[in-house]
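As a warm-up, study this chain.
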Amino acid sequence: MLKISGLHHNVGICLERTDASATMIYPLREVGHRPFSDRELATCRRLVPHLQRALEVGRRLEQSDLARLSAFDALDRLHTAVCILDARGKIALANRHAVEILDERDGLAVRDGMLTTQHATEGRTLARLVAQACGRVPSVKRRRAARSASPDRRDGGRTI
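Now compare it with the structure written out below.
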């Protein structure tokens, strides 16, 4: 078959073998070209563990994507609105009920991808609560402890 397609030299490399399948790669050379040299074969052998690792990483990414899609699907099936925010308050995910509420523009709002409110005062409160939930703003006790632990500045200015 190789000669029919104009190929002659090949190297068979098995990256993985299970009871059900095998993952192989075959570097090929056309008829009329020289066979693979010992140096090229040694390079192939050195590449095998890296290719096997790439195969494993690809498999893990695929499993991770499947888990992520399953989680998104589960959130979408809830009868409750759910917004998942990043540490800045940007919406990373909103299930369908949350999207419906946000589309109504009746209280909550989205500006530049950030969850906020129609009114500035409530928006600042929401931003503060999100920051606290994400650990970006220390609690009152931690803030006081941080102030008391701050070194005095030589110029007499406010401590950090």
